[in-house]
Structures are given as C-alpha cells and as structure tokens.
Design brief:
Blueprint lengths: L1 H18 L3 H23 L2 E3 L2 E2 L1 H7 L1 H6 L9 H23 L3 H22 L4 H4 L12 H17 L6 H4 L4
Length: 177
Amino acid sequence: MRKLFDLHDRIFDSISGVLNPWFVPTAARFTFASVLLFFFWNSAKTKLDGIFTLSLGSYAQIFPKKMEALGYDISQVSTLDTLIVYAGTYAEFLLPTLIVIGLFTRLASLGMIGFIGVMTIVDITGHGLDAKTIGAMFDRLPYDLIMDQRLMWLFILLVLIVKGAGPISLDRLIKLK
C-alpha cells in the first residue's frame, strides 16, 4: 500500500512542479477573459451614447431609484452622481482589460471586487431583486444569479490577487510579478 501512496505522490508532485509556477494565474486570467470580459464590456457599452456621452440608461442602471424619483431627467442629476456614473462606466472597460492583458493585475482585481460589490448592492437594493434571484450559500442550487455566480467571480479575482498575473503578462515584463 505504501508503494501506491509513493507512486501517487511522485506523479502528482511532478505535475504540480510543472504547472505550479504558471498554470493557476494563467488559467484564472483566461477564465476571466472567457466568462467576464465581454460581459462587462457589453454592460459598459449600454451606458454610452458616444465615446464620452453617457446614456440615460447609464444613470438608470447605476441610480435606479434616484432616476425614477427625478422622472428620468438627467439635468437634475448632481455633478457627483455624474462623476460616479462615468467612473463606473469606464471601470467596466478598463479593469477587465487590465486583468486580461496582465497589467497591474492585483490592483485591477481588487478594483473588480469592489466593483462587483457595488454592482451587487445596486442590483439588490436599487433594482429590488427577490430572494430567489439572490440565492443563498449551501442551498444546493448552483445557478443563483447573485450569490453563486458572483462568488465564482470573486474566487477568480482572489486567485489573481494572491498569485498575480503569472508569467504570460505585462506585469511579469515590468517585474511586478
């Protein structure tokens, strides 16, 4: 039995030795690109009428209750709220791009975690999602739109914060690891 355990350890230690330095962060960035890059870019595109022109929908998505109270009149929106909408919109383009190309990956991943947190709060409080849509941890249902989905997103981003971008990245080229 000991020989079987030793064989097991040799095989998987060899695999780990080959894959450990590069596989996990590279796979995390690839998964992020595959699953979330275009999700966030498409979301950001819905917030723009031109390259620097915010759409009415951008305000309605980010401040749904406030916009409803203002009768969807953009002229009534404060300068601070407009800056928040610009920042949120361009963060949806910039942060995923930085993660995918592997530039300032740890900071961009941390920013995405904050972005997802704010997005989740707005979805729940501003758009009034129900408990079924929100879901719950350990509920045996793997497809809740908020809890399960975003928990997986956060895991990928946490891997990138801990491991960095990996060797196939601009971070590595400029020695940020």
